[in-house]
Amino acid sequence: MATDILQTKISQLLGQRYFKKSVLVRFLLFLILLIIWISVNGGLLPGFLRHRLPILRVGPELNILYYFEEAERDGSKIRWSRATNTQAKLKAALTGKYDMIEADVILKGQGTSKQAMTPIVSDLPAVDNEFTLKMWLQQVKKFTKGIKLDFRTIDAVEMSLQLLKRMKNELKIPIWLHADILKGPYSSRLPVDATRFFRNVRTFFPTCTLSLGWTTGYHTDVSQAGYTWDMVLDMHDLIIHWEISQPLVFSVRLAYIKNSIPQLKWLCDTLQASLLVWNDNEDKPVLEDVMYVAYRFPPEKAFFDFQDEYLSSHLKRYRHFSKNYVHPLVLERDQVKFNPYAWVKMGLYIEENSILPSSESLVLKSPAVYIVSISKLKSVETLHLKGRVHFLNRKNQEAINGQTGLSIFFRSFSYSDYEKISGIRFFIGVNGDLQISGQHLGKNVPEFKKRARVTPGSASCYRFDIVDLRHEVVMEINSLHDCDTLESVQHEETSHISLRVNIPHELALGEQPYILKMEDNKRVAVIDELDIRTIYQTKKKKNMNSI
């Protein structure tokens, strides 16, 4: 009996020792794997999760609204020191009430026979500054300010980013890298080479916030100028092509804001980017334009670098009451803003960038992808589909008459195949071709078709109003000369042309969606002011609902 008890205790003791040894081995194995994970990943959290949760980031890519807590997630409260290119300016910025310090970066002797491979903080044409970027960074790293480096030429990028890479462990602050990589309004200055810029960032210093912009110029009258849809789409295409994953900010000049908000809001919405608005001292400040940005962009998505005390104080005072101080046409545009939640995308998944909606506009790029209204309205006394389409010749291709343009379908009962959508088809061609016809309606429905033509304007832009009167449909078209300015939101009183077609009684009046689709890829269509309205007629009154 005693022998059995002794053997049992020995077995228990050996089992405990084995268990402890097993736990120790597993713990050491876990520790080794954890060290490998952190060294490879650059931190405990996965990189994709740090990107989605900016509050958890640590390092140069940190969102400045999380870094500067006193800003209260409001970009208008971030204070900027611009062109901090001298010792005196840097000292004032480091000890002053600034959050972000910006410096211009070129090579010493830039563009001369004495050009060296040493980055300096200076702007053209002053190329002999002795204040090097390394000296500048050595002083900045002792403080808790964020920095923005504005590369004026591509030559300075590689050497500067190599320097940042060597100092990465010393710079635990937000770092923005800026370059004007595309030509903007009235610009005569060459932009920074986008290909070399993105390659160098990816190779030497990918952990940053990318600030991208357009070069701009001066003109005596900028009332009709702005960042056009072509300029904005060029930027979007670059970001998609280079698969940019860094936090993005687009830098724009206040003087060209008035006619650019729909384009810029669309760009920021589709790329989950922010906007930085800066002013030039040579520009006449327009307070309504400042309020326009504040009104359209949420506080956490808009930054303001104003070197004008009047603008800064006005922004500080009225930022959260901006609706009361915008141009009246801004409020008029509110009535026709595109509602992306009222439509769903259908078509080929591989064409995921072919439909790009925001609260301002919708961009259609491919006939293989189209949008379908979520609501399936019953045919009532009167149904209106209103909107505006702006055709862009992005590929410099000739349009095909009767084919290149936008198709709009009513009473669609089959639309799963983009090549065989059924219903009443309203076609608006780039060259002014107009048509109402039945498409894929079956043998039991008589054919119907009516054509017309409207003289196209220089803007290749049309405003349409399509009306379903149960047994008759009407398409009214205005050819517009302007689709870009804020003033273009105003409607003309008379239509240029109107088409009417009687609908066969065999065509069903059930609940069907409405569909918009490009017929080929020779144009890109920007669609806005899209609005479905139903009017119910009664003996006593008329009710109108907007969807």
End-to-end span in angstroms? 89 Å
Instruction: Give the CATH architecture of the largest domain.
Output: Sandwich
Instruction: Tell me the total number of β-strands.
Output: 26
Number of domains: 2
Query: Overall 3D geometry?
Result: globular
Instruction: Note the total helix count.
Output: 12
Q: Averaging pLDDT over every residue, what do you get?
A: 87
DSSP helix fraction:
25-40%
> What integer value in Å does the Rg equal?
30 Å
The CATH class of the largest domain turns out to be Mainly Beta
Uncertain segments: 47-56, 536-547
Instruction: Tell me about the largest β-sheet.
Output: 9 strands, mixed
User: Which strand-content bin applies to the residues?
Assistant: 25-35%
What is the fold named in CATH at topology level of the largest domain? Jelly Rolls
Structural class: alpha+beta
Family: Belongs to the menorin family.
InterPro entries: Menorin_C, Menorin_dom
Keywords: Membrane, Transmembrane, Transmembrane helix
Pfam family, one: Menorin_N
Short structural description:
The protein is 25% helix and 28% strand. The chain is of the alpha+beta class and 547 residues long.
Report on this model:
By secondary structure, the protein is of the alpha+beta class. It folds into two domains: 59-251, TIM Barrel (Alpha-Beta Barrel); 340-546, Jelly Rolls. 25% of the residues lie in helices and 28% in strands. It is built from twelve helices and 26 strands. It has helices at 2-41, 47-52, 64-67, 87-95, 133-140, 157-166, 194-204, 229-241, 261-271, 287-296, 309-318, 328-334, and strands at 80-81, 100-107, 119-121, 146-151, 175-183, 209-215, 248-253, 274-278, 302-305, 343-347, 355-357, 362-364, 369-373, 377-378, 382-392, 405-410, 423-429, 433-439, 449-453, 461-468, 472-480, 497-502, 511-512, 515-518, 524-537, 542-546. Strands 1, 2, 3, 4, 5, 6, 7, 8 and 9 form a nine-stranded mixed beta sheet that branches. Strands 11, 12, 15, 20, 21, 22, 25 and 26 form an eight-stranded antiparallel beta sheet that branches. It has a seven-stranded antiparallel beta sheet with strand order 10-13-24-16-17-18-19, with no helix packed on it. Strand 11 and strand 12 form a beta hairpin. Helix 6 packs parallel to helix 7, helix 8 (229-241) runs parallel beside helix 9 (261-271) and helix 10 (287-296) packs across helix 11 (309-318). The longest helix has 40 residues, at 2-41. Residues 47-56 and 536-547 have low confidence and may be disordered. Keywords: Membrane, Transmembrane, Transmembrane helix. Belongs to the menorin family.
